[in-house]
Structures are given as C-alpha cells and as structure tokens.
C-alpha cells in the first residue's frame, strides 16, 4: 500500500480533537512495524517530541511483566488491540497495587472489534479519565485511523455494540448499499471512506487499486473513496457501530 508521508502528518493534526499529545508523553511500541498501528505509536512519539519505549517481545507476551514495564517507564500513551487489553485488564485486576501506579493518560484501541462490556472492571478501578479510553477504527489504506469514540462506564455493559464513533475531521465516512446509495440511520451498509487520508493505491496492482479505490459520487470531480469491506450502521447518536465484514 502506497501511503505518502503527508498522510501521517495530517493524521495527528486531525486527531487533536480527541487527544492532547505533548513532549512529556511516553509512548510504547507494542506492535510489530508490519502492523500499521506501529505508525501511530512511532510517529506519535516522534512528532510530538515524546519518548518511545521499545519493549522486548517476551515482555509484551506476558501481561504481568508488561504491566510492570508500563509502571516502571511511566508510559502515558498505550495502544492495544482489544484482545491484548483484555489480558492487561486481567493482570491489573490480579495486581491492583501495581495497577494503581500507572501513569497512563490514554489507552487507544484498534485493530479488531471491541466487546465494550469487558472493560467494566477497568472503569471501576480507574474511572473514565485516568486514563481516557478511546476506540479507533481504521485500515492501512486510509492511513491507520478513520474514526474515534471515547468510552466510559455507560458503554461497558452487556450486549453493547462495538461503537467506532465518527470520522476524523478531514475524512468522510459513507454507509452505502450495493448501489452506492446512502442508507438511513440504523440500516447496515458497507463503509466507504473519502478524504485526505486515502493511500495512493496498491503498488504494482492497478486492477486491485481500481477495484478498491473508486470514484466518490458525493465529493468533487476526480475525488476517490475507499471500499473497506466492513459493515456498519449509524446509531441514534450519529456514531458508527461496527457489525461485521461484507465477505463473512
């Protein structure tokens, strides 16, 4: 996937609505550089003049050891897939005195669908602001992140859908039917993304690029949108809910 450097810079500018990163933040490179979440982790630290911790793989595979590292290094910004966070939450529950020493300001989730109910214990122990927990949705073809949703106690209840929120300021999120028509709220459709975060396409694969990056009928002439293959719907609060994959 060909992603211009400028796409990464505008990603952090667009995210300022939700986050106030600074040179005092300590980030953790939890993910492999082959996973696009690492772009957010690495450049989040470097662009803001912060510090980036690069843990050993053995540490990241042990929730207890990783919790100790977060405390020891005073990490303030942590990025996790939901499945990794569930394990960290269990370690935090087993070691409450250690968890109470965390310096986290933000936990940013992404990479897979979230079960919000599994965060209930975390919010009981840490509240909603220390740290802020945000669920973000995105794909490599749209430069890591597309939407954001801050989470709290009221989200962490059984049968709550995976809410991915609304789009970043310089992106447009369309929920469309197979005929590329906008669907009304509560109706499931496929998510298409347009705007400044779109990649150029797939290197050396013109056919696939044309298939996935299609003309945007809602934007200026010549603009494109990316067909994600993900199924979503708008809820009554104007937030997107993830419901699955179109190819499942």
From TrEMBL:
It comes from the Bacteria. Residues 6-202 form the AMP-dependent synthetase/ligase domain. One of its GO terms (biological process) is amino acid activation for nonribosomal peptide biosynthetic process. GO terms for molecular function: phosphopantetheine binding. Keywords: Phosphopantetheine, Phosphoprotein. Gene3D superfamilies: 3.40.50.980, Luciferase, Domain 3. One of its GO terms (cellular component) is cytosol. InterPro entries: AMP-dep_synth/lig_dom. This is Non-ribosomal peptide synthetase.
């Amino acid at each position: 996937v060909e992603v211009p450097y400028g796409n990464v810079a505008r990603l952090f500018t667009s995210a300022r609505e939700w986050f106030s990163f600074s040179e005092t933040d300590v980030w953790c490179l939890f993910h492999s550089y082959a996973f696009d979440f690492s772009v957010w982790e690495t450049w989040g630290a470097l662009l803001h003049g912060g510090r980036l911790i690069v843990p050993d793989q053995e540490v990241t595979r042990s929730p207890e050891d990783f919790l100790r590292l977060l405390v020891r290094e005073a990490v303030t910004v942590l990025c996790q897939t939901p499945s990794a966070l569930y394990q960290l939450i269990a370690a935090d529950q087993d070691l409450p005195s250690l968890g109470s020493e965390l310096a986290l300001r933000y936990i940013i989730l992404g990479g897979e669908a979230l079960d919000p109910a599994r965060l209930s214990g975390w919010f009981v122990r840490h509240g909603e602001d220390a740290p802020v927990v945000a669920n973000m949705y995105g794909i490599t073809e749209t430069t890591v992140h597309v939407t954001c949703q801050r989470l709290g106690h009221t989200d962490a209840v059984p049968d709550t859908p995976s809410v991915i929120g609304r789009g970043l300021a310089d992106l447009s999120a369309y929920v469309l039917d197979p005929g590329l028509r906008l669907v009304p709220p509560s109706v499931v459709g496929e998510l298409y993304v347009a705007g400044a975060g779109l990649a150029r396409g797939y290197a050396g694969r013109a056919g696939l690029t044309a298939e996935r990056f299609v003309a945007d009928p809602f934007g200026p002439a010549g603009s494109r949108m990316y067909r994600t293959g993900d199924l979503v719907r708008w809820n009554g609060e104007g937030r997107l809910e993830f419901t699955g994959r179109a190819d499942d």
